[in-house]
Amino acid sequence: MSITRKRATKKQRAIEILIRLKREYPNATCSLNYETPVQLLVATILSAQCTDERVNKVTPDLFSRFPDAAALAGADREELETLIRSTGFYRNKAKNIQGATDKIIREFGGKIPQQMEKILTLPGVARKTANVVLAHGFGIIEGVTVDTHVKRLSQRLGLTEHKDPVRIERDLMSLLPQPEWENWSIRLIYHGRAVCKARKPACAACGLVDLCPSAQA
DNA sequence: ATCCCGAGGG
DNA sequence: CCCTCTGGAT
Which of A64, A65, A32, A69 is nearest to A50 (CA)? Predict the structure, then answer.
């Protein structure tokens, strides 16, 4: 009777965690508001270091004024900055929104490419943003979205030892079946917001305590 | 490793 | 005051 038979593997633990989180957050989905893939891309760029709730406060005015890639690319930079200012990093975000939409117009015929390598050439877009747009905009599961919540919870749950989001993503891709990758991210984000908070995790209210090496008594 | 950057909570 | 929020580029 070996140790490995008694103790659950990381993979088994990951699956059990996902089962429980699906039960707890059955209808979890992307919480950004958008009408088109381009709007989803813009909302996701805006969501860097900012709550989705705040992004959803600026996008109604933003998308009303500049509804598509052409309008965004041609927008007055200062007006755009003013519209997105409250999301923080507004100069970088405005520059990236216009750089990305301009490239979509010029090089991709006005539509967001559905290949990971091509999306990654857009300014201000790395794997986190690309995974969100591919999964929720086009239904293509290319990787695991690793944001601040997915990173923190995956580390606390002992499923990765890495700090680099790309390495964390690789670890998670090896632990979970591909069709569940985005389900994993969405549930961890919900759980991170509601229970496993960065500052003061509510372990007493967490349904994963028996599976979590970081759980506090 | 550092910078970008506002808003809200403790 | 300090920390955190669906990061990415230099």
Answer: A32
